[in-house]
Write a structure and sequence with these properties.
CATH architecture of the largest domain in chain B: Alpha-Beta Complex
Helix content of chain A: 10-25%
Number of strands of chain A: 7
CATH superfamily of the largest domain in chain B: Naphthalene 1,2-dioxygenase Alpha Subunit, Chain A, domain 1
Helix content of chain B: 25-40%
Number of strands of chain B: 22
Structural class of chain A: alpha+beta
Number of helices of chain B: 15
Oligomer: heterodimer
Distance between the termini of chain A: 28 Å
CATH topology of the largest domain in chain B: Naphthalene 1,2-dioxygenase Alpha Subunit, Chain A, domain 1
Largest sheet of chain A: 7 strands, mixed
Strand order of the largest sheet of chain A: 1-4-5-6-7-2-3
Number of domains of chain A: 1
Structural class of chain B: alpha+beta
């Protein structure tokens, strides 16, 4: 049941940012390596090197994008609706999506030209050793066919990156989009 | 041919020039014409029944969601008497939105501009500083409520229309009710909307997805080729057109413009291809392969809620995809999963006009309320992965429609016609129990042409 009427603060729908208090400071070795990984990931996706991107994913990956809702009054901060999502994926379904993209996926054939801008990156240590919460802002410009007007999307991404064999791998991603009605005509691209 | 009152656009074009009944063609310019769009808002969207949501979204008194009927925004509420109301979200004082949130709970909706307040049933409570009578001296309070639409709840689905004295909801559904009951009214507790709808904007006219929802089965083979390549539907990439999985069934339709494609699972999906219903009872068939969204525990409920003939159809050749005129798509489909299960995906879409060149795609995702939680969870995931924003099926539709739109603006292209000339003709299959216009065999253009005839009939009435 979709209950919009909850009186108590619903933690699940309030934006929380980083949970951990153990910040990994800007400029530290770990911070730099994670930021570099985010840039590498953006480049892999912009360049449609999906095998390289898959190599950055953990097999227990959970990849979601809840819908947003315009709310007011006592509910005004409870606007992340995790009962419904734009993405609801795991590693297997991401493989299904990338596999499709290598065949007749007209939504990306011919492909979009994309630029993923990753900023405002904050990192904190998780309780599990070698795992890091990473919150970043994402802005995507997407050029389709010869249309001069790009479609765009902005979001905050809340990730968990895990240090595995010397490389950081993505274990969780929640994409908090800003629009309640997306201006992008499909999400045939990854965020 | 039936003569009807019609209209003439400023360049002299008439409805008969646009929708060519003699040759089963529609001029591409209908997708971009601004004058026509304004007429559609009056003659279609302010006249016919429109789907706004589901009653499980607003379970408690005071709950509301804000939705759109064409370009008119409405508040859908539940009052203290458990009645559902649909009221225009326009303050009768100065035209401000009375409700600025998209969902919530309120026992009074107070306009933030000057404070006029309204109950969930749309009735006027009063304006601030009561002693000064700021609602005026000319109209009594009972004349100052929000404008109300006529409401009908069917299978929990909330429909409304501005056509207060127009056709009844049963007349609107016509012969399709028999089939739609098999999807929406088949379990004791009914459907549950799993969360707020996905919403996104496509740069195309509402009729481009609209006419496709008139059961365009044929596009599946080519546009959704990836379903065959991914091994979901029968056939291989090399044999798609020879096997033509999912093309054969019974398309059902009616003159109101609604339609559904009834398909045998074994004819459509690779994983069901070795299932033979030959000589099996209805009960056995249901146990072997429950219809999309139904679990084995729910099978007895089907017999409580549907007629034996309806259960037999649901067990054998269930309605799976189609649409209701003017702007509703139905997708209650088998959805084989990567983990081997197949709990189905149940989705309804509305294509809400946002101007001649924009449409809002609203994706409602359902499960049966009495289904186990894990099944609901799986079904949510199935629907999100197959339909709507990121759905691998509908990504391809969303990328195609804007390109048709772009063509519709060309001064030469606009006179190209959409052709619905691959016609089968109504034919009742032997032993078929349901009513309506029936098209057995390969899916053809008949149902979509019926969609256009429903459009023609509404547009011809001033």
């Amino acid at each position: 049941m979709v209950n919009y009427a909850t009186a108590a603060v619903d933690k699940a729908s309030v934006m929380r940012g980083l949970v951990s208090k153990n910040r990994v400071p800007l400029g530290s070795e770990i911070y730099n390596r994670i930021l570099e990984t985010l840039y590498d990931e953006a480049a892999a996706l912009d360049e449609r090197r999906f095998d390289d991107w898959l190599a950055m994913l953990e097999e227990d990956l959970i990849y979601t994008a809840p819908v947003r809702l315009t709310r007011n009054g006592p509910n005004k901060d409870r606007d992340v609706m995790r009962t419904m999502m734009h993405f609801d994926d795991n590693y297997q379904s991401i493989l299904m999506r990338t596999g499709r993209l290598s065949k007749s996926a007209w939504a990306e054939d011919p492909p979009s030209r994309t630029r993923r801008f990753v900023t405002n990156t904050r990192v904190a240590e998780c309780e599990a050793a070698g795992e890091y919460e990473v919150s970043s802002y994402l802005y995507v410009e997407r050029s389709r066919f010869d249309v001069a007007h790009n479609e765009t999307i902005s979001a905050e991404r809340r990730d968990i990156w895990r240090l595995v064999g010397g490389a950081y791998k993505l274990a969780r991603r929640e994409i908090i989009v800003d629009q309640s009605t997306l201006g992008m005509s499909n999400l045939a691209i990854f965020l | 041919m039936l003569q009807k009152a019609t209209f003439t656009l400023s360049d002299g074009a008439t409805l008969d020039d646009l929708v060519k009944r003699d040759s089963y063609e529609v001029a591409l310019r209908v997708m971009s014409d601004e004058e026509l769009y304004k007429l559609e808002m009056e003659r279609v969207f302010a006249k016919t029944w429109l789907l706004l949501g589901h009653d499980t979204e607003i379970p408690n008194a005071g709950d509301f969601v804000v939705r759109d009927m064409g370009e008119d925004q409405v508040i859908v509420t539940r009052d203290r008497n458990n009645e559902i109301h649909v009221s225009l979200n326009v303050c009768p004082h100065r035209g401000m939105k009375v409700c600025t949130a998209e969902a919530g709970n309120a026992h009074a909706h107070r306009c933030i501009y000057h404070g006029w307040a309204f109950r969930p049933d749309g009735s006027f409570i009063g304006a601030p500083v009561e002693k000064e009578q700021m609602h005026g001296n000319l109209l009594t309070k009972d004349k100052l409520g929000l404008k109300k639409a006529r409401v009908e709840v069917y299978g929990g689905l909330i429909f409304a229309t501005w056509n207060i004295d127009g056709p009844s909801f049963d007349d609107y559904l016509g012969d399709m009710k028999y089939y739609l009951d098999q999807l929406f009214c088949r379990t004791d507790s009914g459907l549950e909307l799993l969360g707020p709808p996905q919403r996104f904007i496509l740069p195309c006219n509402w009729k481009i997805p609209g006419e496709q929802s008139g059961s365009d089965g044929f596009h599946t083979l080519t546009l959704h080729r990836s379903l065959m390549e991914g091994g979901v539907m029968g056939g291989t990439p090399e044999s798609i057109y020879d096997n033509a999985p999912g093309m054969y069934g019974v398309d059902v339709s009616c003159e109101q413009g609604h339609s559904l494609r009834c398909l045998e699972a074994a004819q459509t999906f690779k994983m069901f291809s070795d299932i033979s219903f030959e000589g099996k009872s209805v009960e056995e068939r249901l146990q072997m392969l429950p219809p999309p969204g139904i679990t084995k525990e729910l099978i007895p409920q089907l017999f409580n809620n549907l007629s034996p003939d309806q259960v037999e159809q649901l067990a054998t050749i269930p309605p799976q995809v189609g649409g209701l005129f003017p702007n509703i798509l139905v997708a209650f489909i088998f959805a084989p999963r990567t983990d081997g299960g197949s709990s189905g995906a149940l989705a309804l879409h509305t294509y809400v006009p946002r101007g001649p060149d924009k449409v809002e795609f609203v994706n409602f995702i359902f499960a049966e309320k009495d289904a186990p939680e894990q099944v609901k969870r799986d079904m949510l995931q199935n629907s999100i992965q197959q339909t709507g924003t990121s759905g691998v099926i509908e990504q391809d539709d969303a990328d195609t429609w804007p390109q048709i739109m772009r063509n519709a603006r060309g001064v030469v292209s606009k006179d190209i016609t959409l052709k619905y000339q691959a016609l089968h003709g109504h034919e009742r299959p032997e032993g078929w129990k349901g009513g309506g216009l029936l098209y057995p065999g390969f899916t053809k253009d008949d149902t979509q042409w019926n969609w256009w005839m429903a459009y023609y009939n509404l547009m011809a009435e001033a």
